[in-house]
Amino acid sequence: MINAEKDILTTADTAKLLGVSVRTAQLLIEGGTIPSWKTPGGHRRVYRADVMALIESGGRSAPAPTSSTVVIIAAAVRLAQYRELAGQMPECTAEMFDDILAALVSIGAMKPHAIIVDLEDAVAELKPLIESLAENPALAQSRLLAVGRPSALSWELPARVMRVASPGEAMAALRKWIGGDEEPILEQDGLPYPIALNERQRLVALERTGLLDSPPEEAFDRLTWLAAQSLDTPIALMTLLTPTRQWFKSRIGLDLPETPRSWAFCNHTILQRQVFSVPDLSRDSRFADNPAVRGEPGFRFYAGAPVHDDEGFVVGSLCVIDQKPRTLDEREARTIEALAALASDEVRLRKMDRKLREMQRAKDRARP
Predict the structure, then answer these.
(1) Is 233:342 a contact under the CB 8 Å cutoff?
(2) Average pLDDT for residues 244-266, to the nearest whole number?
(3) Which of 51, 112, 258, 316 could be 240's S-S partner, Cβ–Cβ 3.0 to 4.6 Å?
(4) Cα separation of 97 and 164, whole Å?
(5) pLDDT digit string, tens, across residues 238-251
């Protein structure tokens, strides 16, 4: 029998509660049907509440929500170091705080992929914070990491909190988490473009937006029109990248509704935190052999910025293209970045609208 007061379960405990074999419980846990985390020793742990929710649903569980957002809590003097390190990991969106209250508000709103708490300063004040985060069932899917030298701790960390000694080690652990335990959906070797560590999750996030192959929308068309007008380019696009194609949610100056993904300059943009630009594509070894550069329509200049969803995943880009070489100045870069941010807002609004409509339909079905 499992102690009814035991809130955190092992894989064996979970198997007993479900009435299945340990192997079956492992598959449910590792496959994400039951949210879990790993202890510093590498053992899986789950919350009893999540197992009970699975039982009550008759075994039908929705896919675990995903996020690429990371919350970092540290003293102001340490945040610059974390900001530099996070800038080298475009797969995640880092939110940084030196104010605990502001951090907690953000954590409650977004359920981040990971929460990093730097213990270099104010260790005693941070103990209640770490314990509260570890005990919060709503954060069962968030990784928790404490950064600090062992000698700086006079108390034992909760079991689900991993500890490392430095910001560099913290970001190395984060990189491993972002990549996940599964095989990548796309193999990097042999591809003519780079892919994100969390490409599988990014593609799921793209699907959840509901934008793929959807009709044109005035809100997005306004943004591409503004991009073309502001930068005086013949072509402006809002692109969405699937495993095999680059589909244009909005396009100005281009008849093609999509291209093979291997043609997409935006493969590089979605791995950037800011604007990505190429003054002359024909002189860049990454793009010189691209069919759209080598042949018709003879693209030369490209500049784009990533478009994010509400969970921090990059689903595509807003970009401009010209058939003559040119250099992007600071004003133009800020313009593209601002328009991409507006496109991101539109993506989030549509996703929120879909969720609200789904909730309303569920309520309607539940009515007698």
Answers:
(1) no
(2) 94
(3) 316
(4) 19
(5) 999 988 899 999 99
